[in-house]
Amino acid sequence: MQQPSAAPILPEEPANPTRAASYSITDDPIFYGTVIMFTLLTTIMPAILGQPRFMPVVQTLALTTFLAMTVRRQKMRQIVTVLLMWLLIQLILITLLSWAAPGSLAHAIPNGLTGASPFGPGSLATKSCPTACRCAPSRASANSSHRPGRR
What we know:
mainly alpha
């Protein structure tokens, strides 16, 4: 009695080392989605909680992690992309949060929002101008016959 022949064994395809070596986490679109998610998380959470030291610490840890991944692969374009994304999202969030919840955001930032008030709307009406701006030039000084080089 003859045994049926087994299916021929096909040689395994050799692993493609260039394909495995060419993958980089920083080239994956999910990486940038994760950067956006952590930017939102590390900005909104401390602003809601109102903890002054929580925001800088958490954002430093998260941003350092993302930048370390891109610096390790020495891709300058991706480093700049991560930084610009982080800063633009944070700028938009801080602006929106200062409008929506100024009280809790003022507690989340060390020294509050004291630096934002000089350029706010109506600030010129409530604050006095410096003495150089406050005094209008007099007509006498404008019509003065004093010219440089003449006495």
